[in-house]
Fold this sequence. Notes:
The longest helix is centred in the middle third of the chain and has 15 residues, at 34-48. The strands form two sheets. Strands 1-2 form a two-stranded antiparallel sheet. It starts with 10 loop residues before the first strand and ends in a 7-residue tail after the last strand. The protein has 89 residues and is of the alpha+beta class. 27% of the residues lie in helices and 27% in strands. The protein has two helices and four strands, in the order E-E-H-E-H-E. It has one domain.
Amino acid sequence: MIYVPGTRQQLSMIAIVTNKGYAHWQIIAGNFDSDRLIEFLEQLIKDARRKVFLILNNLKMHHSKPVKIWLENNKGKIEYFDLPATVQN
């Protein structure tokens, strides 16, 4: 549980669920940005100890230049897939 004072405060959460059903998550004050996403992914591949297959949901940050460069530089450790922009019925 995270307790915050009665004043308005923005919290953001990033989470992944593994194919075995385990969750990895992080909550921060403020917004996630490219640097925070990269830090999260670095910890994820460190904890996984094997290649990570990541499905991204097309959040604008996922397509930022720093994230794309980081993913390219770490393609031996992490492979990513983008969900379609819209879901077809």
